[in-house]
Each structure stands twice: as structure tokens, then as C-alpha cells.
Specification:
about 20% strand, globular, alpha/beta, binds magnesium ion, Isopropylmalate Dehydrogenase, binds NADP nicotinamide-adenine-dinucleotide phosphate, about 400 residues, 16 strands
């Protein structure tokens, strides 16, 4: 069989720990035997980010802006414990995902991969809930201060015109912590456009929630921008398709989501989206069954798994113990990237390959061959628990058959 040809390269971003191991296994078993892979490789593993003073992350993100499609492995965001684990770290480097998101000014859409034999924990959920996470600013781009004494904190803005605005944040009678965060009208507007467009493209209702009763200026601005855009640019199209735009407070939204049937997009601010996507994916089955795509307002795409580097499994792997880490979300990151690349370059064979990879993966699961995390969740079948390597081999066998047809 001839290998499937590519035209424009993908921006490939390698990562850390267990997902770095999965990354190589997926390439070896499901990609390289079938595709004449064209990819520009960026090593976003923690060691190389440290060696390059994190320049590699910036370079990769800029390259996605040029080439259009990237695929990323999960990466470590260092915290205090990681500074001890990796003593060579020059700095507590920022989240690579945060860096990439702010360069692409994108919105992250996360949707669960659903299979018949795994029923959601929330029994009234019948259809996937897609979380649209605003991927710029707020706490992810905040500046923080730890104070060691009493004092007064102010928030100051110096306008380009020279006009200055200052508000008092707090009088502190003891040491404490401070945080200054921001967002931009342009970014909130891109976020809103991305959400309305995605709702139209997928013909799903759009929900949006903030805490604007408490955060009148900050969250209030988000609410206003969404409302204005909807009224002036999207209402007609929504009415025509019979879909709705629904705004409510974040706490009310959480309560309604639990009672809903699913089948809509829930637009969330950056932090809400971070937290809620983990809740939604876990309730649908497993963190390892959640896809994630970052879409920029200019139509650039970055695909990844929604989960992290699965540290606990990696330590077992290092000790030589067998691991049964679920590679499905990482497989779907690659397949999503190939499908999009094929669509943009007008390569139907590449699109078909991406679809076949997904079909082969879902068939394997529906036949009850799954990693350990899913076995306990499957109903109505007698699942067989396999290790990651065997799982990938099973997918490979099915993929070969599908591609021959
Ligand atoms: P995590 O890697 O998502 O793992 C949390 C737990 O979820 C795992 O211990 C495992 O549970 C389960 N799990 C997640 N993915 C799985 C998979 N593919 N197969 C089977 N089980 C899976 O989150 P974390 O432990 O909080 O974070 C670890 C590192 O990842 C951190 O350094 C963090 O900075 C980084 N991170 C990166 C990204 C990203 O790059 N997108 C996102 C989140 C976190 P059991 O242990 O019970 O089996
Ligand atoms: Mg999260």
C-alpha cells in the first residue's frame, strides 16, 4: 500500500512524561506505517523549554500561525514541586498552553468522545456537551505579588493619551497576596465570534455564563459584547436554524447543565472552562476521552488531548511496571489535525485517513477492547483490559482493514 501523501507540514509539538511515551507509540503504530508524514518538530518537553528559555514554545505557536495546523502533546506546567523535581529549571516557566493560546488568541472547544457502552455518570445526559473555553487572559496572564508587610494596594492604568486611572484594591493590615489580570475587547469579541460561528456550524444551542452580578465591569463587559454581537450579527441565522443563544449566571448554568439532556455548546471564561471541561469529561466517562481544539479568529487550529501528562502512570512506567494509559484523546488530536490539514490542502485521502483512524479506535472500544480506566465504566459488554501497546496494536489491525476498502 502506498503511503498517504501530505502537502503542507503539521506543526508537531512533543511533550512530557507518559504522554510523550504515548506520542511515540501512536506515531510508530498508527501514523508512520500509513502516512508520508510531513511535520515540523518542536520539542516542548520541559527540559528543552528550559534549555531554550521557553523560546521553543513561542516559535511553535508562531509557526502554527503561518502553517495553519498544529498538534500538541501534553506538557508539564512547572509548579513548586516540579522545581524540586527538576533542579536545573532556570525559572518556573509559564504554561505552554497559555503561551500558545495567547499567541493564537484562540478559543478552545472541548467535546467528549462518546461510545455506546459507556453511559455518562449524569444519567439524563444524552448528547455531548461541548465546552468553549476562552483561551486568552484572566488569571492565566495575571501578574501577582506576594507582600511581606502591611500596606495599600492600588490598580493603575496609564492610558496612551496620558490619562491615568487609579483605584484602591485593598488596605492590607498584614502580609498577603495580590493579583492583577486583564482581558481585551478584541479578544472577547473573537471569542464571541468563534462561539456563535461554531454553534451555527454544528447547529447547536449556545450557552454563555459569567459572574457579572459580582464582577460588574469585568464580567459585565463579556456579557455585553456577546449580547451586542448576537443581536446585530447572529440572531437571524440562529432563528433560521432554530437554535438559541442563552445567557445565565455561572452558578445557575452549573445547576442547569446537570439537569440538562446535553447537546449544546457551553461558552465559559478561561478559568471556568478549565475547571468545567474536566468535570464534564469525567462525567461523560474519562478525562482521557476528551478532545480539545484551539481555534484562532483567523482560522488556525491546534489539536490536543484535554488531559495532562498522566504523571502517576509515568512513574510506574519508569519502574518498569505495565501501564494501561488511555491514548484515545491523543489519537484524536492527531486525527483531527490530519483531517483539518487534508481539508485545507484539498487532500481527500488525508481526510479519509483521519476518519479511518477515529473509526478504528471507536470500533476497538465498542468491541470491548479498552484500557483500564474505561473497563470499570463499560456496561452491557464484557470488556477486556489491555495495556497501551496492545490497545494500539488492535487499532492498527482495524485501521489497515479500513484503509484497504
Ligand atoms: P492528568 O495528567 O490529566 O492526570 C490526572 C489523572 O487522570 C491521572 O492520574 C489518571 O488517573 C487520569 N488520567 C488522565 N489522563 C489519562 C489517560 N490518558 N489514561 C488514563 N488515565 C488518565 O493531570 P495531573 O496529574 O493533574 O497533571 C499532570 C501534569 O500534566 C502536570 O504537570 C500538569 O502541569 C500537566 N497538565 C498538562 C496539560 C496540557 O498540556 N494540556 C493539561 C493538564 C495538566 P489515575 O492516576 O487514577 O489512573
Ligand atoms: Mg483543567
Amino acid at each position: 500500500m502506498d503511503k498517504i501523501k501530505m502537502n503542507t507540514p503539521l506543526v508537531e509539538m512533543d511533550g512530557d512524561e507518559m504522554t510523550r511515551i504515548l506520542w511515540k507509540m501512536i506515531k510508530d503504530k498508527l501514523i508512520l506505517p500509513f502516512v508520508d508524514l510531513k511535520a515540523e518538530y518542536y520539542d516542548l518537553g520541559l527540559i528543552n523549554r528550559n534549555d531554550t528559555n521557553d523560546q521553543v514554545t513561542v516559535d511553535a505557536a508562531n509557526r502554527i500561525n503561518e502553517l495553519g495546523v498544529g498538534v500538541k502533546c501534553a506538557t508539564i506546567t512547572p509548579n513548586a514541586a516540579r522545581m524540586v523535581e527538576y533542579p536545573q529549571l532556570k525559572e518556573m516557566w509559564k504554561s505552554p498552553n497559555g503561551t500558545i493560546r495567547s499567541i493564537l488568541d484562540g478559543t478552545v472547544f472541548r467535546a467528549p468522545i462518546i461510545i455506546d457502552c459507556i453511559k455518562p455518570v449524569v444519567k439524563n445526559w444524552e448528547a455531548p456537551i461541548t465546552i468553549a473555553r476562552h483561551a486568552y487572559g484572566d488569571v492565566y496572564k495575571a501578574s501577582e505579588i506576594r507582600t511581606e508587610e502591611a500596606g495599600t494596594a492600588y490598580l493603575t492604568f496609564k492610558g496612551a493619551s496620558g490619562k491615568e486611572t487609579t483605584v484602591e484594591v485593598a488596605k492590607m493590615n498584614c502580609p498577603g497576596v495580590l493579583q492583577g489580570m486583564h482581558n481585551k475587547d478584541t479578544s472577547i469579541t473573537s471569542f464571541a465570534h468563534a462561539c456563535f460561528k461554531y454553534a451555527i456550524a454544528t447547529k447547536q444551542d449556545l450557552w454563555f455564563s459569567t459572574k457579572e452580578t459580582i464582577s460588574k465591569k469585568y464580567d459585565g463587559r463579556f456579557k455585553q459584547i456577546f449580547e451586542d454581537l448576537f443581536e446585530t450579527q447572529y440572531k437571524q441565522e440562529f432563528d433560521k436554524l432554530g437554535i438559541t443563544y442563552f445567557y445565565t449566571l455561572i452558578d445557575d448554568a452549573v445547576a442547569r447543565v446537570i439537569r440538562s439532556k446535553g447537546g449544546y455548546i457551553w461558552a465559559c471564561k478561561n478559568y471556568d472552562g478549565d475547571v468545567m471541561s474536566d468535570m464534564v469529561s469525567t462525567a461523560f466517562g474519562s478525562l482521557a476521552m476528551m478532545t480539545s481544539v484551539l481555534v484562532s479568529p483567523t482560522g488556525k487550529f491546534e489539536y490536543e488531548a484535554a488531559h495532562g501528562t498522566v504523571t502517576r502512570h509515568y512513574y510506574k512506567y519508569l519502574k518498569g511496571e505495565e501501564t494501561s494509559t488511555n491514548p484515545v484523546a491523543t489519537i484524536f488530536a492527531w486525527s483531527g489535525a490530519f483531517k483539518k490539514r487534508g481539508e485545507l490542502d484539498n487532500l481527500p485521502e488525508l481526510v479519509k485517513y483521519g476518519e479511518c483512524v477515529e473509526k478504528a479506535t471507536l470500533c476497538t472500544l465498542e468491541e470491548g477492547i479498552m484500557t483500564k480506566d474505561l473497563v470499570g465504566l463499560a456496561e452491557g459488554i464484557s470488556p477486556i483490559s489491555v495495556n497501551t501497546e496492545e490497545f494500539l496494536t488492535q487499532i492498527q489491525t482495524r485501521l489497515e482493514k479500513l484503509l484497504k476498502n
